[in-house]
Design goal:
Distance between the termini: 16 Å
Largest sheet: 2 strands, antiparallel
Low-confidence stretches: none
Number of domains: 1
Strand order of the largest sheet: 1-2
Mean pLDDT: 76
Order of helices and strands: HHHHEE
Oligomer: single chain
Helix content: 40-55%
């Protein structure tokens, strides 16, 4: 199984307590924080930051799920892929060790 460690998640910018958006997204996708690979956290937190910049009063799980679909890694981790036909909003993700 692939798990993202707590230091990795915190290095990406996740803070506790979780924001309402992150909490609602986790409930929606039914995945624990450690089950989402680092790139998945980049997408979640990057999209949340974009929403804060451009639409601070609107951050909905439904908006996220309209743009991304969750996929499984070979090792049972999870990541997000851009839905078919859409351009990526979050690009050039750095690797986190």
């Amino acid at each position: 199984m692939v798990y993202t460690s707590t230091p990795q998640i915190l290095a990406l910018g996740l803070k506790f307590p979780l924001t309402i958006f992150v909490r609602d997204l986790q409930r929606y996708i039914k995945v624990a924080p450690s089950q989402l690979v680092a790139g998945g956290w980049h997408v979640v937190l990057g999209l949340e930051a974009l929403c804060d910049l451009f639409t601070p009063d609107s951050r909905e799980v439904e908006d996220f799920s309209a743009l991304y679909v969750m996929r499984n890694t070979k090792e049972n981790g999870h990541f997000f892929a851009t839905r078919s036909g859409l351009k990526k909003l979050i690009v050039n993700l750095a690797d986190i060790d």
